[in-house]
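Design a sequence for this backbone.
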């Protein structure tokens, strides 16, 4: 089993060595460090980036050296990856950076709606019509992410469900739009455990969405989306149990 979506202290997780030890404890065959990265030149995102210090675009070479050191002593495979924020306005910058950095693979994520992070309380103050429009925007952007062919993995493809103000507005039509795009793409969605132990309590995609992916015969990768060793150790058995009954096949990336 491979966990392709783990974070380290190069974004908002814990030290590489601690996360790697947890991956070994969970009996994984391989773990991928996919730290957050944003290369947008848009001003509000430049401010956000400075505030939260997600700077993998300037530190990835140093992290790569650390990963190479760890590979010499580890008993499991270690992948040098990235989780890129996606917006269609940033495609040129993303494409140039990924070509330059040459990661083992790239994970694409939609975190932005209406120039706000999908997790923010900002949406709680919007009307129902505006909340529904935000969810429409989100799924339109996920489709654009897939169609861009920039990424190997599409992360947490219904992340809007994490926000109570946006939860429940996704429709079967949204799911089918994403599934149809994935069916024509090299991009693979993941089963993501990033909120299984939090208030939301579900995997991504949620059961109805996963059923639609199964109808389209779309495979999935596995991502614990762990930011701490304890989360990684706890989520891997939960993912294994979920995948036993999932209506989709688990696939490995060709690396």
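Sequence:
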């Amino acid at each position: 089993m491979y966990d392709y979506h783990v974070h380290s202290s190069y974004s908002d997780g814990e030290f590489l060595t601690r996360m790697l030890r947890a991956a070994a404890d969970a009996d994984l065959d391989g773990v991928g460090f996919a730290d957050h990265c944003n290369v947008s030149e848009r001003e509000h995102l430049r401010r956000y980036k400075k505030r939260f210090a997600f700077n993998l675009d300037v530190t990835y070479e140093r992290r790569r050296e650390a990963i190479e050191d760890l590979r010499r002593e580890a008993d499991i495979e270690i992948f040098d990856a990235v989780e890129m924020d996606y917006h269609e306005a940033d495609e040129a910058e993303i494409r140039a950076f990924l070509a330059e950095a040459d990661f083992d693979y790239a994970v694409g994520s939609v975190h932005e709606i209406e120039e706000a992070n999908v997790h923010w309380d900002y949406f709680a103050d919007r009307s129902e019509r505006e909340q529904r429009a935000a969810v429409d925007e989100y799924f339109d952007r996920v489709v654009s992410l897939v169609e861009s062919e920039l990424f190997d993995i599409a992360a947490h493809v219904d992340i809007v469900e994490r926000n109570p103000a946006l939860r429940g507005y996704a429709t079967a039509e949204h799911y089918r739009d994403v599934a149809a795009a994935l069916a024509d793409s090299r991009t693979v969605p993941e089963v993501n455990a990033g909120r299984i132990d939090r208030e939301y309590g579900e995997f991504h995609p949620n059961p109805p969405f996963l059923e639609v992916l199964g109808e389209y015969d779309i495979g999935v990768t596995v991502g614990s989306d762990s930011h701490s060793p304890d989360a990684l150790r706890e989520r891997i058995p939960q993912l294994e149990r979920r995948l036993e009954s999932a209506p989709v096949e688990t696939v490995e990336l060709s690396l």
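The mean pLDDT is 96.
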